[in-house]
Write a structure and sequence with these properties.
The chain is an all-alpha fold and 75 residues long. It is built from four helices and no strands.
């Protein structure tokens, strides 16, 4: 699995665990909802700044986005 896919799956997993829709997380993280969808599907690269915004919005350490199936340990 590619790193983009791992990051995307983790973002989606943590988002679900937090009970947020894509729209709600996008608003909290101040990013575009359609961009968030592409991130979760592993279709685009993500900057460190954007990952930091998402991690803070989800209240998870940023490094957990890099762990394959990292979100499962939190659920």
């Amino acid at each position: 699995m590619t790193l983009r896919k791992i990051i995307g799956e983790n973002i989606r997993g943590y988002r679900h665990a937090a009970g947020y829709t894509q729209a709600a997380l996008a608003v909290r993280a101040k990013i575009d909802m359609f961009y968030l969808g592409k991130l979760e599907r592993g279709e685009v690269n993500v900057s460190a700044d954007t990952m930091e915004k998402i991690a803070k919005s989800l209240k998870v350490p940023i490094h957990t986005f890099f762990i394959e199936q990292g979100y499962r340990s939190k659920i």
